[in-house]
Amino acid sequence: MTDAATTKPFHRLLLTGAAGGLGKVLRERIKPWAEIVRLSDLGGLGDAAEGEEIMCCDLADNAAMLALLEGVDAVLHFGGISVEDRFEPIMQANILGLYNLYEAVHKAGVKRVVYASSNHATGFYKNTEVIDADMPLRPDGFYGLSKCFGEALSRYYYDRFGIETVCIRIGSSFPEPKSARMMTTYLSYDDLVELLRCSLFTPRVGHTIVFGTSSNDTTWYDNRKAGHLGFKPKDSSRPFKHLFPDTAERPGDDPATIYQGGPFVTAGPMY
After folding, report:
1. How far apart are CA 238 and CA 174, in angstroms?
2. Which of 196, 219, 224, 233 has the fewest CB atoms within 10 Å, measured from its CB?
3. pTM greater than 0.85 (yes/no)
4. Which residue blocks in 181-254 are alpha helix, DSSP H?
C-alpha cells in the first residue's frame, strides 16, 4: 500500500502526443501529479522511465484508443497534427481521432480532459480586437477548423455525459518567441504547466475555454470567463523584446499582419 504522505493526486494520467514538441516538455513536468504517466504517440517515445507507461497508438484506430483509456483517471490531449496541412490527414488525426478519444473516455468512465485547442480557432479576428470565450469561432485554416470541431465535440460530451473539459487555446509555447507576432501569443513552458495544473485540479470546470498566453505586454484575449481556474501567468514575452526591434511596417493589406492567425491565414487551403 502506498504511504498516505506520498500518494499523488492521480493514479494514472494519459498524455497523448507525448513525442511532440510540447509533449516532450510535459513528459517530466507532469510526473508529480500521478503515480503513473501513460505516454502515447505514433512512435518516438523511447523506453519507459520509472513511473511511465508507453502505448504507441494511432488516434484514428478506434480499438487502440479504447485500450489506451483503460485505467486512466484524466487525459491531457496534445495528440494530432499541430500545423496547417491538407484536410484529409487533419481529418484523420484531429477530427476522427478526437471522436475516438472521447468515445473511449466515455466508455472508460474518465471525467476530466484537458484539450490542447489553439489560437487558430479564432485566427480571423483582427489583431486590433480583443476577444473572449463566447465570441464566434473564426478558424484560419483546416487546422484551426479541426480545433473548432474539438471544442464543439467536447461540449457535446459534457452536456450529454458530464465529461468535463478545459479547452486551452494555446498561443505560441516555445522557449522564446520566434516572431513579432509571438510577442503577443507567447506562452512560457512554466505558464503552460501551471495552466494544466489549474485545469486538472480545479474542482469543477464544466466546459471551460481559456486562452493560453503568458502575461505579455499586449494581448488579444480576455480570460475573465475562465477566471474560476485561478490561472495567473508569471512570465512574459517582455525579456525578448530586443529580438524584434521596430522595423518598417509591412503593407497594410498584408493578411499576416492584419489577422491574429498571422501566417496561418494564408497557409491554405491545401489540397
Report:
1. 14
2. 224
3. yes
4. 182-185, 189-201
Candidates 99, 102, 125, 143; catalytic one: 143
Expressed as residue numbers, the domain containing 117 is 8-266
pLDDT number for residue 4: 47
Residue predicted with more confidence, 249 or 243: 243
What is d(CA 69, CA 38) in angstroms, rounded to the nearest whole number? 9
What pLDDT score was predicted for residue 250? 57
Least trusted range by pLDDT, from 29-33, 148-152, 252-256: 252-256
Which CATH number belongs to the domain containing residue 49 in this structure? 3.40.50.720
DSSP label at 52?
A: E
Work out the average pLDDT over 56-73: 97
Give the burial string for 11-29 (b: 16+ CB within 10 Å, else e): eebbbbbbbbebbebbbee
Is 143 catalytic? The answer is yes
Is residue 2 in a domain? no
